[in-house]
Amino acid sequence: MAPSRDISRLIEIMAALRTPGSGCPWDLQQTFATIAPYTIEEAYEVADAIGRGNLSALKDELGDLLFQVVYHARMAQEQGAFAFADVVEAITAKMIRRHPHVFGTADERAAGVSPGFWERAKAAEKTESAAGAGVLDDIPSALPALTRALKLQNKAAKVGFDWPSLAPVFAKLKEELAELEEVMADRNAGAVADRKALEEELGDLLFVIANVARHLKLDAEGALRSANEKFIRRFRYVEGRLAENGRSPVQSTLAEMDALWEEAKAKGL
Length: 269
Description:
Blueprint: H1 7-17, H2 25-29, H3 32-52, H4 55-78, H5 84-98, H6 100-103, H7 106-111, H8 117-124, H9 145-158, H10 166-188, H11 195-215, H12 220-243, H13 254-266
Helix pairs in contact: 1-4, 3-4, 9-11, 10-11, 12-13
């Protein structure tokens, strides 16, 4: 088996890995459920490579993600549900259907994209089995919580369930923060800590923060990723400065580390 630029070779490799008797024991044991976490992980690694601007890594990560598609398609083929070719046909049909301004008749191409076309096209694709489904029913539960919160809010907003401006969202943010502080105050006063109540109030607060990002038309996931990277940069600076004196964070005080953190901040890290 030799490498190839042809997708058929990857499909052949996947088939060989899943062939009883001669295939890979680990691959043969896998199911849709056991592979799904790897699929999500590979998608994140693609996003990470893009965020780092590393095109060499992006090539490899896209390959890993493509392998996940082939993997799921192979397992579906084994069950007689569909094969990789059916996946390709389905997505090409969908892209052609959703882009009449590119692939349609001369009149459709000349008309261009009308406002709300994408949403109408997606709505028209819903099957009869989805009849009677709620507005939020098609938001996948496996999405990262922050991404799902934004999608839920956007869906609700499209049917009019939304605050008209940012002001009431900020008011709600303050309300949720106060409710979390109230639960914490009860705990500090000696009351039995209700972990479920704390988690609920924290969840409400995070949900409203996501709504703030939505109203500001900001990428909440991207903003948090940037904050994570900033934290890493500054903490590494703290570690480096401490190492110059032969010490590590565990050998230092919070005051010392905080002073170095402000130093890193002043340097624009």
